[in-house]
């Protein structure tokens, strides 16, 4: 027979396991994710202002008005209290108003499309600083990262400098996915034929997990990558290493090699491309990588022209035929 001490040890085992967890969502390394974590904490505390008293009062009333407590005041005809109504309705209303203000402010302040105005809470972003651009493409089932300014691309490895604002332009080749690095910022969807954006910054050097947070088929479980936050010098060295990888058999990422890459595959290793076609990302976004394919943006532009022409024709007055019979040879009825 097991002793009570063994039972207590088993009960405490989950707590011991949780004590070693790195709760990255609530302790992130990027300023945007840190602001989101604080918003979660503040919102939870505000809601607990109602939840905790309600639970405490429920237990208190159950204890005070138990059947065996003959000293409890019995009022079967009681039905109203203005003070109690003010507390019951007033306190939740005030909390809802505060939560609404927090939501409205945070929705604008933490808009992923909004350019950054600070590095962290103590350092504003200097005027004129141009963010690093990274083009993100969700493939089946891997991630493609294109650095247009550096002229390189990688598969399943993302590297950015610490304390440098980065603008991520995100799309997908086929199935909708979700780009998510918990240490960096919140989840942003990647959708075919559409571009979403994320402006974010990583503030601490390290290696962080990134993955797809939206189920996209058989290889979804392995659709993961490593995100490296490095110094400026290390980033420049990494770019140089990727560009030099051509001597080890790496090929340039053009339309032909992309069509091979986009074929579904699982557990894809890290891969480098030392050169990238300048128009590749736009072709991926507009779904016209293949030969002879018409780009979606061109189709839309042509549709606008056709619609405008049709509208102009509809608005043009139709000439009225001259029905006057001036000719002597005209047939009269």
Automatic annotation (TrEMBL):
GO terms for biological process: ATP synthesis coupled electron transport. The keyword Electron transport applies. Keywords: Cell membrane, Electron transport, Lipoprotein, Membrane, Oxidoreductase, Palmitate, Respiratory chain, Signal, Transmembrane, Transmembrane helix, Transport. Residues 129-241 form the Cytochrome oxidase subunit II copper A binding domain. GO terms for molecular function: copper ion binding; cytochrome bo3 ubiquinol oxidase activity; cytochrome-c oxidase activity; oxidoreductase activity, acting on diphenols and related substances as donors, oxygen as acceptor. The chain crosses the membrane at residues 39-63, 84-105. GO terms for cellular component: periplasmic space; plasma membrane. It holds the Pfam family COX_ARM. It is found in: Cell membrane; Periplasm. Residues 17-114 form the Cytochrome oxidase subunit II transmembrane region profile domain. It is a multi-pass membrane protein. Belongs to the cytochrome c oxidase subunit 2 family. This is Ubiquinol oxidase subunit 2. It comes from Pseudoduganella aquatica. The gene is cyoA.
